[in-house]
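Batch manifest, entry 17 of 40.
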Amino acid sequence: MVEAKTKATTTKRDAVQNARRLWLVRHGLTEWNVQERFCGHSDVPLSARGRVQARWLARRLEKEAISTIYTSDLARARETATIIASQRTPALQVKVSAAWREMDFGAWEGLTFSEIADQFKDQLGFFSDPEHFSPPNGESLAHLLQRVQAELAAIAYSDDMQMEGDAVIVSHGGPLRILLCSILGMPVERQWQLRLDHGSLSAIDFLLTHEPTVPRAILASLNVQQSTRPSHSPKVRSPQER
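Output type: structure tokens
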């Protein structure tokens, strides 16, 4: 019994020592976010407020031991990542990938929820059952989950994560919530219980193993922001993401 307990304690200690932190950043605000328009794959830049949020994120992460920054290739995420990277000495390389893009909302992009409800009265299944319905000419939730899981696994078992230091992912609300659901074993329909505001910072600690499965991870922090009062928080009335 003593031997088994000692072995378990040693395993736990080794797991903690082998952990690597992955910081999750939701990009700063855009004008479309303020107007509550669906951004999706549309390449909308940061607003002035979004750049302020990005600079706060850079200051918050400045003293963290970060080795790599990954980002969506869309301008609002890329600019947020570049601002974070530029505060480092020397500046960190930013690795860009379309896998971290927001969900493609197809015909709904650029529209508000009210406009969608008015123009697509018979194609609103996504809002009540997003696992089985997709936006017209848009992406399915299953495909979003697949690409996020694949990219997460690639990062977790890459040389970058074997290095000393943390990694940062700058992405969008949809991919980050789906990512957290995946690693925490939560059903994707519960993603709306995970609040991730624009310009927010969350963190997960990877327990690095050699098993070729979805990496084990612990949620360390969620939705940390410059202010305790969100700068912009649209009403959650349906499974929508901007």
